[in-house]
Amino acid sequence: MPLFEFRCEDCREVFEALVRRDEPANCPACNSTKQQRLMSAPARTGHTSGNLLPLAPGCPPADAPPCSPGCCRL
Fold first, then answer.
1. What integer pLDDT is reported at residue 49 of this predicted model?
2. How far apart are CA 10 and CA 51, in angstroms?
3. What is the number of structural domains in the chain?
4. Which of 24, 39, 55, 66 is the most exposed place for a label (fewest CB within 10 A)?
5. Would you state the torsion angle of the CA atoms of residues 11, 14, 17, 21, taken in this order, to the nearest 10 degrees?
6. Domain range spanning residue 24?
7. The sheet that has 3-8: what strands, in order across it?
């Protein structure tokens, strides 16, 4: 089963869940099944390199919330 990143539509919690593509995920904060699947960016450039990939010029830091529905982090 693949690992997906989700945002809960009820409480806005962002979390990862190991689910089948068409299987609903339960929010760990409120147990809702109303989720929005997020696009996850690759975290590293290679197996031996410790460099993180930039998301895009002007993107907020990784620990900041998304800037808008069209944000490069969604």
1. 47
2. 35
3. 1
4. 39
5. 90
6. 3-31
7. 14-18, 3-8, 35-38
Does residue 23 lie within any of the structural domains? yes
For residue 10, being part of any structural domain is answered with yes
Spell out the per-residue pLDDT of the chain, length 74, in tens. 678 899 999 999 999 988 887 888 899 999 999 999 887 665 554 444 455 555 555 666 667 776 666 665 55
Tell me the Ramachandran region of residue 6: left when phi exceeds 0, alpha when psi lies from -120 to 50, beta otherwise: beta
Asked if the structure places residue 69 within a domain, the reply is: no
Distances (CA, A) of 61 to 3, 30, 50, 67, 73: 22, 26, 18, 10, 10
Which tokens belong to 13?
Answer: 């919690």
